Give the backbone structure.
Amino acid sequence: MIQEIKIKNFRSFKDEVVFSFEASNDKFAESSQVVQVNENTRLLRFAVIYGYNASGKSNLLKVFDFLSDFWFAESRDVDKKIEVEPFKLDAHSPKDHSFFELTFFVENTKYNYQLELDKTQVYYEKLSYYKSTQPTTLFERWLENNQSDIKFGSAVKMSSAAKESIIVRCLKNMSFFAARNQVNVSLPLIDEAKDTMRQKIMQVITPSTELMTYAQRRAFKNNDLVSYILRFLRAADFNITDIKTEIVEKPIPEDIMNMFLQTGSAPQEIKDKIKSEGSIKQSETRFEHTVINERGIEKYHLDPNNDEESRGTIQTFGIETALYFALQKNAFLPIDEIESSLHPKLLEKIIFEYLKTASKSQIIVTTHNDGLLDLIDDLIRKDSVWFTEKDKSGATDLYKLTDFKGVNRLSSIREAYRNKRFGATMGEV
């Protein structure tokens, strides 16, 4: 589970900001929304980010996609640019380093990861864990003579040859974890953190995510997933009674075939195979609708790929698929603009059903749906609500609802938000 992340000089974040899942002393929904990971730490399962357009709320989620991609991207070209985006509305920031610090738990063990880099190289990287109140270094990496140097902590047991092999493979423009993956050696404490970072931080779902493709690929021959989604659809009062996903073979249109054969990026053997077969296999999903009319009970099967299903149904299918895997894996799932194509009541239902399911999973969502603010202390905890705002320099400020004094005296947090009373300068609201 994620405890907090610190970000500096990334996209719209110029100065350091801190986002935290750590719970306050509020006891509302304690059993369903708070996980006690150790004696001193209670972590939230849900967070919602509000902010006006271009305020930077989406950039908070993009941090996780950047880190996930960078951690495990292997490079053989030392000159390949790192796809980090510094703050650009300043003369100095594009030349400065970007900084990230992630604190997370693997079961009850606390880890801390730090990363400092620019587009050309990693300047500093460190992983620590806590076997007491003080951190113990697992590895620490810095640049020396334009090459990576790595020091391993005493808790890491491996041969000098294995250490040297990792150091040699750790190019200045790639992460330690990408280099470590190339060396066949057992590093339990490091790999526990690595596997959590790789397997339990899910890709951000955005309004541009092809949710139909995302969901039907995962629903194929996964009866447990289909049953989970059907239970939700019935509870949400859809008239969908079944979901069928199968692999079908379809001919490739001539113009698409010619375009593919002319491209220079595909190997010739692949081109020859596609040309000889003349078809492609793809997933196809149909939703069974059961209706009652003057003829009695009838069933109809609609194809979402032919625009026969509503955008709301497809959005729900995709989001619930992602939530299923988050719950199954106790993973972290970011969703940008979760309200897209969803009725407000359906959005509430999605959040409610997720939160009532016992799990160590976490989700963070951005939204413009301020109706959720009316559900504070009914469905949503105060310490789950955050805001983003651009200052005069164009940089994003990040702050939480509980930073403001007098919140408990407000008759409507929603109206206060609409009246812009939650500004970046904390004080009485």
Observations:
- The first strand starts at residue 2 and ends at 8.
